[in-house]
Amino acid sequence: MNSVLVTGGAGFIGSNLIETLLVKKYFVICLDNFSSGYEKNIKEFLSHENFVLEKGDVRDGSLVERVIKEHKIEFISHQAARGSVPKSIEEPLVSNEVNVNGTLNVLWAAHKNGVKRVVTAISSSIYGDSLTLPKKEEMPYNPKSPYAITKVTKDMYSKLFHDLYGLETVGLRYFNVYGPKQDPKGAYAAVIPRFVNNALKNEPLMIFGDGTQTRDFTYISDVVAANVLALEQNGAVGKSVNIADGKSTSIKELAEMVIRITDSKSKIRYEKERAGDIKHSVAEVSLAKKYLGYSPQVNIKEGLARTVVWFKRETQ
Q1: 136-168: per-residue pLDDT in tens?
Q2: How would you classify the pairing of strands 205-208 and 268-271?
Q3: SS3 category, 98
Q4: What is the pLDDT of residue 276?
Q5: Where are the domains of the chain?
Q6: 12, 45, 116, 216: which one has the fewest Cβ atoms less than 10 Å from its Cβ?
Q7: Residue burial 72-105, b: 16+ Cβ < 10 Å; e: rest
Q8: Per mean pLDDT, which range of 185-189, 273-277, 294-298 is the poorest?
Q9: What is the pLDDT of residue 186?
């Protein structure tokens, strides 16, 4: 039975990934400090015979190494990160410590202890506000926030550890992931859970900017599928590929869709554009298809409908 360490496993993406890995008969170790993840996200796994929870922080290199050795880890899915562009602008040192130093701890411990492969979560923020669309992997980095810089560094370290040390690495450049278990609370919550949560309460949907900005929204099941492919397929080793739906949606269109799907009385309100936000983003996903066999299955309308069903169930 293959052993997989999922860092940040109590978070949105990590907990959804763990669910699939357990179904696929992996032995899964979850490492999380619960700074942004929740025990409720993994509660159903705690009694599973193939699941172990390790409470801790990826910034603790000795802890990471101990977990890898103790559980004889063969694969790592490195999802742990400090998200949010605004948070990184307010506290760049903390974002750097978690996202850069934490990643280096994971890669170095993996290299020293014979881990076969590390899959690392990157971000579309590395492309910045380039006018060129769609975003392709060969485009130069153009980070516009401390958060984006940390993701560029993670991307570069992932490739370097493959080229320099021979560690099998795969970088997955996520584009605006959404779906069940995503946290709607807090000032820096991602737009979809915030919109859905407010719409179900008939509260205003707040848009920062004029609403014409676009994003490539990627449903969580497609991201989970990409992670499993990255663990099991060899084509993307040493590479970094876009993981997205490949379609763009404006924030105004998104708000209107959420209001329709929830049958909400919410109104749309506009606020000043936020520092560090990019204007337009949509991905080219042909390399993920070529190297991983990745093919997005859930479009924005279907994904929103599934997300609303989950939020309604959670709030009842």
Answers
A1: 999 999 999 999 999 999 999 999 999 999 999
A2: parallel
A3: helix
A4: 78
A5: 3-175+219-244+284-296
A6: 116
A7: ebbbbbbbbbbbbbbbbeeeeeebbbbbbebbbb
A8: 185-189
A9: 66
Greater model confidence, 238 or 189: 238
Alpha-carbon distance of 18 to 43, in angstroms, equals 12
The pTM assigned to this predicted structure is 0.96
- What are the angstrom distances between the C-alpha of 242 and each of 34, 194, 227, 260? 27, 25, 12, 30
**Beta carbons within 8 Å of 81's beta carbon, 6+ residues apart:** 8, 98, 99, 102, 121, 150
The two beta strands, 27-32 and 51-55, are: parallel
C-alpha span between 195 and 109 (Å, rounded): 40
- Cα dihedral across residues 262, 263, 264, 268: positive or negative: positive
Amino acid at site 111? H
Give, in words, the CATH class of 3-175+219-244+284-296: alpha beta
Cβ-in-10-Å burial (0-12, 13-18, 19+) of 210 comes to exposed
Q: Does the pLDDT of residue 316 top 80, yes or no?
A: no
